[in-house]
Specification:
Blueprint (H helix, E strand, L loop, with lengths): L1 H12 L3 E7 H7 L8 E7 L1 H10 L9 E8 L2 E6 L2 H6 L7 H5 L7
Antiparallel strand pairs: 1-2, 2-3, 3-4
Length: about 110
């Protein structure tokens, strides 16, 4: 998938790390479930930002690392993610708003 290569380059260029890439179709097949669509899920993070967040509120670990999905929808390639600002807001830790907003709202 061409978009996956571009995403990996963008992640590195923005000082993130790719922790893991999940191939949903392959994972489902290993569980005996046929899933026809291709979907890659990237686990990404910035280690220093993660440390900041977890030092303040360890329960935020339930939504880390941030995930970015790539899949096809008709003839379009879709990249989907949840904004870190929205995720952090669920944990009522106002002192972390600046981390979520970070550089363009994508420090996770």
């Amino acid at each position: 998938m061409e978009a996956a290569v571009a995403l990996q380059a963008a992640v590195v260029a923005n000082h993130f790390g790719v922790m893991q890439i999940h191939n949903l179709k392959e994972t489902m097949a290993k569980k005996g479930v046929e899933f026809a669509r291709e979907c890659l899920i990237f686990d990404v993070c910035q280690a220093q930002q993660v440390k900041k967040v977890l030092d303040k509120n360890m329960s935020i670990s339930t939504v880390l690392p941030c995930q970015i999905s790539i899949y096809e929808e008709g003839s379009k390639t879709i990249l989907a993610t949840l904004k870190p600002t929205h995720l952090l807001a669920m944990f009522n830790t106002p002192q972390l708003e600046e981390v979520g907003a970070g550089s363009r709202g994508h420090d996770c």
